[in-house]
Specification:
11 helices, 14 strands, Rossmann fold, alpha/beta, binds uridine-diphosphate-N-acetylglucosamine, 336 residues
Length: 336
């Protein structure tokens, strides 16, 4: 297939591009580079051994988007692009609703005009309401506690409504748990702007000496060691999940899948795994709970196993080792 990846130079987009090309698909990456760099496409090309097509396009630019569909014979789309910082979304709700929703509607209209009706959408475990018991199952009720989360809930609904009206569309809603790690080459990885909000990018910068200590947001949760538990999934496993979903877009309708491992790890377990990866003790301090955080979030991965044949294979140590290799290369160090 020729696959258009919106947000194609971002963290998950770039790893999915590698997975798709190595499985024999062609990719067209588009991105506005608001949270990524154009040279990521060169790095993807370096890994796969040939150049990949990459264009600077903002999804709010309808004409630019239509030109992409006119110039490339696109078979399907994976829609990663979107603003994704929870705290920023609370401070700038209109920017989040405008950007994420308008971009998606522009994309769906451009796809309709071009006769492309196969779509994989980047959703999130954040769509599960906080009062659901773990592990989260796809049939649980959805809701959100911040504008970022609401954009995911709303886009899922827009897509369900579209499929109800036009049953020849094929749509996969993929709800990611906590993607971490990097390509094992260390050539691509997560590259957040400024001080990271998420745990593993933060720990990586402590390990690199760029930040002084890891702050553990609460150690009095009702979890085995008192710290927050999440379902971390290696970004290359997540990339595989996207390919499997894409290859099943031959059946019309909308399907929803969790992409997680089904296993939870605590903040302390993540820090311990990262210490094993980088080979030294990392300073940590217990800080107050972060507003809005839940004690424990992990997936029931059985529907993705049955419907997509998807199983995450890589464990926490491999995730941290790959993250650390990428962090070292990004800082110009050598490792191994
Ligand atoms: C966060 C977002 C979620 C988003 C996901 C993307 C919030 C509230 N939720 O999920 O919407 O889809 O990222 O990956 O921001 N922690 C620390 N110290 C830190 C950072 C985090 O102890 O410096 C803890 C948190 O309390 C949590 C765990 O580490 O228990 C994971 O946090 P994080 O990586 O930010 O992910 P989520 O909060 O699960």
């Amino acid at each position: 297939m020729v696959v258009l990846l919106t947000g194609g130079t971002g963290f998950i987009g770039s790893h999915t591009a590698v997975e798709l090309v190595q499985a024999g698909h062609e990719v067209v990456l588009i991105d506005n580079y608001v949270n990524s760099h154009p040279d990521v496409a060169d790095r993807v090309g370096h890994i796969v051994g040939r150049p990949v097509t990459s264009l600077q396009i903002d999804l709010l630019d309808r004409a630019g988007l239509e030109a992409v569909f006119a110039q490339h014979r696109i078979d399907g789309v994976i829609h990663f692009a979107g603003l994704k910082a929870v705290g920023e979304s609370v401070a700038r709700p209109l920017a989040y609703y405008h950007n994420n929703l308008t971009a998606t509607i522009n994309l769906l209209e451009a796809m309709t005009a071009a006769g492309v009706k196969k779509l994989v959408f980047s959703s999130s475990a954040t769509v599960y309401r906080a009062d659901n018991p773990v592990p989260y199952r796809e049939d649980y009720p959805v809701g959100a506690t911040n504008p970022y989360g609401w954009t995911k809930v709303m886009i899922e609904q827009i897509l369900r409504d579209l499929v109800a009206a036009e049953p020849d569309w094929s749509v996969m809603l993929l709800r990611y748990f906590n993607p971490i790690g990097a390509h094992p080459s260390g050539v691509i990885g997560e590259d957040p702007n400024g001080i990271p909000n998420n745990l593993v990018p933060f720990v990586a910068q402590v390990a690199a000496g760029r930040l002084p200590r890891v702050r553990v947001f609460g150690d009095d949760y009702d979890t085995p060691d008192g710290t927050g538990v999440r379902d971390y999934i290696h970004v290359m496993d997540l990339a595989l999940g996207h390919r499997l979903a894409l290859e099943r877009l031959d059946r019309p309708g909308v399907e929803t899948y969790n992409l997680g491992t089904g296993a939870g790890s605590s903040v302390r377990q993540v820090v311990a795994a990262y210490q094993r990866a980088c080979g030294r003790e990392l300073p940590t301090v217990v800080a107050p709970r972060r507003a809005g955080d839940l004690p424990s979030v992990y997936a029931d991965p059985s529907k993705a196993a049955a419907g997509l044949g998807f199983r995450a294979r890589r464990g926490l140590d491999e995730m941290c080792a790959d993250s650390w290799r990428w962090q070292c290369r990004a800082d110009g160090w050598t490792v191994d």
